[in-house]
C-alpha cells in the first residue's frame, strides 16, 4: 500500500495552527475542559441510531430557546396587576422585535411540551427505559411534571381575562386535592384571595424556582445518558450501552436483562429457546 | 433467612422512636392550624424529645463502649471446660473517638445546623401564606333604598380598594323584605362552586339600569338590575343553579356560596363568604345549611367531606 507523501505544511500555516491551538492547550492543561467536551461530544453510539433519537436534543434546544427568550422578556415585563398587561402590550407593539421574541416564548412553550411527549414516546417504543436506564425514565417524568408547572405558572403572566380565569380554575383544581388541597391552593394564591402577591409569586416560580429545578434535572438526565450510553433501536444488530457496561463480566448464560446483545444471544441461546421477540 | 442464634444482636434494633417522632410532627402540623399557641408547641416538644431519643438510640454503637464480640469457640477434642482466663482480652481501641470521626460528625452536624437555620425562615416565608387567615370583608354596598323589595341586583365592589381592580368581586343581591321587622337579604356569590368561574344569571340583565353608587372614600359600587328566571349558570363547565343557588345540573358539588351581611344606618354592609350545602325554601323563609367557607369543588357535606377535614384558619 503506497502511502502518499503528505505535503509539508508551510511555516506560515504551522504558525497559524500554533496560534489557534495555544489558547486551547492553555485551557486544557489547566481545566481539562477540552477533553471533557470531547468526551461528551465524541462518545461511541450504536451505528444504527435513528433520527428519532434526536428528539431529546430537540427538547433541550426548545428549553434553551425558552430560557433565552424568557430572560429577554423579563427585561420588559412588569409583574404588577396594574402594569403586567400594559407591559406586554409594550413588548408586542413598541420594543424592537418584541412581538417575535414573545411569540417564540409563547409558541415555544407548546413546542417544548410536545417535543417532550414525542421524546417520551420514542423512549417507550424503543424500550429505552429498560435496565439500566430506569432512573433516567424517572428523571424524565419529573422533567415532564415540572415542565407542566412552567406552563401553568407562565399562563397567568399575560394577565388578561383568559389567563386570569384559567389560573382561578387551575388553583381551585389544586384546592380539590384531598386533605392538603385547601393549603396548596392558599400556597399558590399567596393568601385566601387572588391578589397582587399571586402574580409576583407565579412570576418568581416561573422564572426562578422551576427553571432551576429543570436545569438540575436536565443535568442529571444528560449525566445518565452519557454514563449509560445511547440505546440501539429495537431492530439493531449491535450491542447497546456504554462500552464499560459491555466490559463487565456477563452472567453465566451470557445474557443481561434489558440490553440488546445479539452476539451473546447467538452464541448461547436462552433457556426459552431464544424465541423472545 | 439465617437461623435464629440466641444472643445474636440485630443492628439496628427495632425502635419506636421514629413513630413517636412522626406523631410529634403530625401533632405540630395539626397544631399549626388548630391552635398555634397550645397544640403546636406540644407537638414541637414531642418531636424534639423523640428526635433526641431516636438520635441517641441510632448512635448508640458509636458512643458507647465498643461491643465485646464473643469470639467463636470450637472446643477441641477432649477440651471439655473453658477457661475464661485464657481468653484474650477484647481489643479495646485506645481511642474511643478517633479524630476523623469527630471531624466528620462535626462537619455534618454543623452543616446541617447552619442549613436548618438558613432554611427555616425561608421556608416559613414561602409556605406561610398556605396557613394564613381568610381576608375579612366589610364593604358598604350602599343604602337599602337602592335595593327595591323582591328585585335582584348584580352588585360589584372591591374587597380592598388599595389593591385595585384585582379585588373586584360580584354578588347577586335580592331584598327579601322584612323578616320579624328586620330587612332580609339574599347575597349569593357569583363564584361557581365547581372551580370558581363567574356564574351568570339565566335571564335578562338590564344593562341600561346600571347605576354607580359612591360609598365614600373613593369607593364605588355598581348595581345592575337582572332577573335570574332560570337561576344561574356557569359558562366554563356547565354548572347550573336555581335562583337560590341550589345545584340543578353539572359538576358543582354543593350550592352557591353566600355572603354574610349586616344593616348599619340603613346601609347594606357585605361581609365574608360562607359555604352552603343546600337551601330549602326561598327568600326570607329559606332554610340555609350553612358551613364555614370552603374552596370551590370541596364537599362540605356527605361522606366526601372526609377529604377536607382541615381548612386554613378563618
List the helices and strands and how they pair.
The complex is a heterodimer of chains A (277) and B (314).
Chain A: H1 11-31, H2 33-41, H3 55-74, H4 84-93, H5 98-125, H6 134-156, H7 161-175, H8 181-189, H9 196-228, H10 243-247, H11 262-267
Helix pairs in contact in A: 3-5, 4-5, 5-6, 6-7, 6-9, 7-8
Chain B: H1 17-34, H2 39-58, H3 60-63, H4 99-127, E1 139-143, E2 152-158, E3 168-179, E4 182-189, E5 200-201, E6 205-214, E7 220-226, E8 232-233, E9 240-241, E10 247-249, E11 255-264, E12 267-280, E13 287-291
Antiparallel strand pairs in B: 1-12, 2-3, 2-7, 3-4, 5-8, 6-7, 8-9, 9-10, 11-12, 12-13
Helix pairs in contact in B: 1-2
Key terms for this structure?
heterodimer, A: 277 residues, mainly alpha, Cytochrome Bc1 Complex, Chain C, 11 helices, 65% helix, disordered C terminus, B: 314 residues, alpha+beta, Rieske Iron-sulfur Protein, five-stranded antiparallel β-sheet, four-stranded antiparallel β-sheet, 28% strand
Amino acid at each position: 500500500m503506497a502511502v502518499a507523501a503528505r505535503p509539508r505544511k508551510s511555516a506560515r500555516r504551522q504558525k497559524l495552527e500554533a496560534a489557534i491551538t495555544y489558547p486551547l492547550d492553555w485551557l486544557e492543561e489547566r481545566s481539562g475542559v477540552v477533553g471533557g467536551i470531547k468526551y461528551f461530544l465524541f462518545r461511541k453510539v450504536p451505528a444504527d441510531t435513528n433520527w428519532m433519537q434526536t428528539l431529546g436534543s430537540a427538547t433541550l434546544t426548545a428549553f434553551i430557546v425558552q430560557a433565552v427568550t424568557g430572560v429577554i422578556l423579563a427585561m420588559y415585563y412588569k409583574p404588577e396587576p396594574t402594569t403586567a398587561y400594559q407591559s406586554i402590550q409594550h413588548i408586542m407593539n413598541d420594543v424592537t422585535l418584541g412581538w417575535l421574541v414573545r411569540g417564540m416564548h409563547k409558541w415555544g412553550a407548546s413546542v417544548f411540551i410536545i417535543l417532550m411527549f414525542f421524546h417520551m414516546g420514542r423512549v417507550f417504543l424503543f424500550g429505552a427505559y429498560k435496565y439500566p436506564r430506569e432512573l433516567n425514565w424517572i428523571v424524565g417524568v419529573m422533567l415532564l411534571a415540572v415542565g407542566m408547572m412552567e406552563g401553568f405558572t407562565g399562563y397567568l403572566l399575560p394577565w388578561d381575562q383568559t389567563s386570569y380565569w384559567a389560573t382561578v380554575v387551575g388553583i381551585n383544581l389544586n384546592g380539590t386535592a384531598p386533605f392538603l388541597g385547601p393549603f396548596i391552593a392558599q400556597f399558590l394564591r399567596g393568601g385566601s384571595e387572588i391578589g397582587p402577591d399571586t402574580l409576583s409569586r407565579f412570576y418568581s416560580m416561573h422564572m426562578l424556582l422551576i427553571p432551576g429545578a429543570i436545569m438540575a434535572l436536565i443535568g442529571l438526565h444528560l449525566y445518565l445518558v452519557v454514563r449509560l450510553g445511547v440505546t440501539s433501536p429495537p431492530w439493531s444488530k449491535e450491542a447497546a450501552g456504554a462500552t464499560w457496561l459491555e466490559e463487565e463480566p456477563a452472567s453465566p448464560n451470557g445474557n443481561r436483562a434489558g440490553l440488546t446483545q445479539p452476539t451473546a444471544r447467538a452464541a448461547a441461546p436462552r433457556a426459552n429457546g431464544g424465541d423472545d421477540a | 433467612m439465617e437461623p435464629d442464634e440466641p444472643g445474636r444482636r440485630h443492628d439496628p434494633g427495632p425502635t419506636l422512636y421514629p413513630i413517636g417522632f412522626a406523631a410529634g410532627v403530625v401533632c405540630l402540623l395539626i397544631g399549626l392550624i388548630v391552635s398555634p399557641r397550645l397544640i403546636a408547641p406540644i407537638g414541637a416538644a414531642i418531636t424534639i424529645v423523640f428526635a433526641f431519643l431516636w438520635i441517641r438510640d441510632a448512635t448508640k454503637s458509636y458512643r458507647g463502649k465498643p461491643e465485646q464480640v464473643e469470639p467463636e469457640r470450637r472446643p477441641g477434642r477432649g477440651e471439655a471446660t473453658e477457661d475464661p482466663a485464657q481468653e484474650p482480652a477484647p481489643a479495646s481501641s485506645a481511642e474511643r473517638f478517633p479524630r476523623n470521626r469527630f471531624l466528620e460528625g462535626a462537619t455534618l452536624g454543623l452543616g446541617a445546623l447552619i442549613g436548618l437555620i438558613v432554611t427555616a425562615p425561608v421556608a416559613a416565608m414561602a409556605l406561610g401564606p398556605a396557613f394564613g387567615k381568610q381576608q375579612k370583608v366589610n364593604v358598604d354596598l350602599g343604602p337599602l333604598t337602592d335595593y327595591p323589595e323582591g328585585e335582584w341586583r348584580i352588585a360589584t365592589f372591591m374587597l380592598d380598594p388599595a389593591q385595585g381592580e384585582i379585588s373586584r368581586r360580584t354578588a347577586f343581591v335580592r331584598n327579601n323584605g322584612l323578616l320579624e321587622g328586620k330587612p332580609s337579604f339574599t347575597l349569593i356569590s357569583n363564584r361557581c362552586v365547581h372551580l370558581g368561574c363567574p356564574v351568570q344569571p339565566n335571564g335578562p340583565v338590564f344593562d341600561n339600569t346600571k347605576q354607580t353608587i359612591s360609598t365614600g372614600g373613593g369607593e364605588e359600587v355598581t348595581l345592575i338590575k337582572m332577573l335570574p328566571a332560570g337561576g344561574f349558570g356557569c359558562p366554563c363547565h356547565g354548572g347550573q343553579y336555581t335562583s337560590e343557588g341550589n345545584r340543578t345540573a353539572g359538576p358543582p358539588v354543593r350550592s352557591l356560596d353566600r355572603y354574610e351581611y349586616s344593616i348599619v344606618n340603613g346601609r347594606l354592609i357585605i361581609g365574608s363568604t360562607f359555604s352552603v350545602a343546600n337551601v330549602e325554601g326561598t327568600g326570607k323563609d329559606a332554610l340555609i345549611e350553612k358551613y364555614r367557607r370552603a374552596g370551590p369543588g370541596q364537599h362540605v357535606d356527605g361522606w366526601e367531606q372526609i377529604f377536607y377535614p382541615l381548612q386554613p384558619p378563618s
